[in-house]
Amino acid sequence: MSNWRTQRWLAVGLLLLVIAALIFAVLLPLVSAGLAYYDEKNDLLFRLQRQQTIAGRETQVKEQLELIKQQFLEQGYFSSSSTEALASAELQNIVKTAVADAGGQLTSTQGLPGKLTDGFFRVAVKVRMTGSTESLVGVLHTIESAVPILVVDQLDINPVRGVRNRKTNKIDSSDQLNVSFQVVSFLRSPSQ
Question: Which residues contact 180 (CB under 8 A, 6 or more apart)?
Fold first, then answer.
């Protein structure tokens, strides 16, 4: 009889062992896969909400971009001239006024061919002038602080040679400078 009980307990133990093996072999991977899918679903939901938030702000961003573009146009950073020739003439007039107001002497101005760079049309004028250091500072300050934006490029400064004194036979120094530079202004490209 004890043999029969032992076999019965042994059979129950083996049954429990088979059930436990099935639980660990089948049920546990299913549960862990379900948990992994649940975590992935939550991550994807978070990303979806974030993308929907970004997409919801699209109209707001477009409105802000248009406002910034409008403010940029109102600031007048670019020449308002419609052609390169008009922009060059306007630039020469600005330089002429700046040199005269600073007490310098304009030797020449020459319009240079324009270039299209990064969506903007570059209009340049080559300037030659004579004047003192103070007049040069005044001209450069006027040009650099002008609206539309003007840029000084290729600045070359040389002193004017003094004249010989007939009494002492020495060369008297001169405070005059020969100055050559380019002034650059920008036009919007025709496509903008």
Answer: 126, 127, 128, 154, 155, 156
